[in-house]
Amino acid sequence: MKLYGYAEGYREEDNPKIHTLGEVTLSASPDELKKIAQFFIHSASQMEKYGTDYEHEHLSGFDDTFSYKSDIIISSL
What DSSP assignment string belongs to 6-75? Predict the structure, then answer.
């Protein structure tokens, strides 16, 4: 597993730089964590189903209650 991320405010930048992360901290409610867990399970199922054709999915596309919050993107290796 590899972790990547952008600095806050990156959407306003012309060419935002993605960073390799050593650690990720989620500050979330129990309800949000349950929704994220469902997203992870869904993404794993999609990876198994589509194999090498799987590209990526956004949490905000899976659950629109995350549309205006930080997003999580699952990508194949």
Answer: --TTGGGSSSPPPEEES-------HHHHHHHHHHHHHHHHHHHHHGGG--EEEHHHH-GGGTTS---EEE
pLDDT at 15: 82
If pLDDT is split at 50, 70 and 90, which confidence band does 12 have? Answer: confident
pTM: 0.84
How many independent structural domains does the chain possess? Answer: 1
**Is residue 69 a contact partner of residue 48, using CB atoms and an 8 Å limit?**
no
Range of the structural domain that residue 23 is part of: 3-75
CA within 13 Å, CB half, 16:
12
